[in-house]
Amino acid sequence: MNRVVITGLGVVTSLGQDVETFWANLIAGKSGVGMIESFDVTEYPTRIAAEIKNFNLDKYADKKEARRMDRYVQFAVAASIDALKDANLNVKTDTDPERVGVHVGSGIGGLTTWEEQHRILLEKGPKRVSPFFIPMMIANMGSGQISMITGAKGPNTTSVTACASGTHSIGESFKMIKYGDADVMICGGAEATISPTGVAGFCALRAMSTRNEEPEKASRPFDTDRDGFVMGEGAGVLILESLEHAQNRGARIYAEVIGYGMSGDAYHMTEPDPDGAARCMAKALKDAGITAEAIDYINAHGTSTPVGDRSETTAIKRAFGDHAYKLAVSSTKSMTGHLLGAAGGVEAVICSLTIKNDLIPPTINLVNQDPECDLDYVPNVPRATQVDMVMSNSFGFGGHNATIILKKFEA
């Protein structure tokens, strides 16, 4: 079986639209959350989000192509092109395109396109609905457009598992390379649901923070005063390669992927079950062939919801036993917001950089730690320490759980 390494990273987030800016802002403990500006939120209980401002696809695709992409697809394409550039890899000229695959997940897909075309249907009738409505909206079109633009002709698919989508996409890509179905995978997640319907839907669930007067302090995982998640948007994409393929072309390696676990709660539509998350982490440890004590840091799902943060804390303690109290755990959603299906992709980028830089990003806004959340959450400031092994968790509505494990690369 092949060893699998990470050779390229790409992000589009409210904290930065390139990896260097994104990492600098993350380590500085900056929040990407602010007032929603893309539509009128006067009547909404939640009026804040981690919105991406001044995004421009022009340097990635021509304007005609861009008009035929939903916003989430645009994010996916931009992050993928940047990740390939970071990996110094041209799919068409540097390798066999039939051995390069794409697996970019999205929890919801083209919600903004759906809203716009539904408005046109109601106001102007069915004949005015765009012929591009369906191919712009469907959740697999991120992977499809990336393939068409880059020339990747290998395995091409999409995970749609709510907030676990990005991590499932990376985990499945890891397996494809491990078992020889591809040499390279472009993988991660993309999402763009900061829209009237998207925000209204999550408001109706009472899942989001209403701390509208202090947007930067609204996402506060593991804090006693947390009152819900803050929605984000964007994309996080990684280039995975077999070690042999990467070494043959002299690629720089950020980290190695060594484990992947997945499980189902079989419990509730929206409420998590700590047993499912604990089993997922245990499966990832088993897949990696390591003990719990080997993990140095967990990038938590950590959404800032009252139930979710307690559940994940319980799950970590069940999976790790006494070692849970020796781990560093942080939630970078405190800065990025919750990117739903893109969260796992962005957080895998963060984990890669954490290993590369031996620097753990903080959980900001952690002022009064919840007594039921009693682990080391790296509060408010980054921590410089040797980081050899990292776990990243993602849990989605429907009881979908995904965990990946990365380690510092050793030849």
TrEMBL record:
What's the domain of life for this entry? Bacteria
Q: Which reaction does it catalyse?
A: a fatty acyl-[ACP] + malonyl-[ACP] + H(+) = a 3-oxoacyl-[ACP] + holo-[ACP] + CO2; (9Z)-hexadecenoyl-[ACP] + malonyl-[ACP] + H(+) = 3-oxo-(11Z)-octadecenoyl-[ACP] + holo-[ACP] + CO2
Class of the enzyme per the UniProt entry, highest EC level: transferase
EC id: 2.3.1.179
Ranges for domain Ketosynthase family 3 (KS3) come to 1-408
| One Pfam family matching this protein | Ketoacyl-synt_C
Alphabetic keyword roster: Acyltransferase, Fatty acid biosynthesis, Fatty acid metabolism, Lipid biosynthesis, Lipid metabolism, Transferase
InterPro entries linked to this entry:
3-oxoacyl-ACP_synth-2, Beta-ketoacyl_synthase, Ketoacyl_synth_C, Ketoacyl_synth_N, PKS_Beta-ketoAc_synthase_dom, Thiolase-like
Q: Which SUPFAM superfamilies match?
A: Thiolase-like (SSF53901)
What molecular functions are annotated in GO for this chain?
3-oxoacyl-[acyl-carrier-protein] synthase activity
**Purpose:** Involved in the type II fatty acid elongation cycle. Catalyzes the elongation of a wide range of acyl-ACP by the addition of two carbons from malonyl-ACP to an acyl acceptor. Can efficiently catalyze the conversion of palmitoleoyl-ACP (cis-hexadec-9-enoyl-ACP) to cis-vaccenoyl-ACP (cis-octadec-11-enoyl-ACP), an essential step in the thermal regulation of fatty acid composition.
PANTHER family, sorted: 3-OXOACYL-[ACYL-CARRIER-PROTEIN] SYNTHASE, MITOCHONDRIAL, POLYKETIDE SYNTHASE-RELATED
Q: By what name is this protein known?
A: 3-oxoacyl-[acyl-carrier-protein] synthase 2
State the organism of origin: Paenibacillus eucommiae
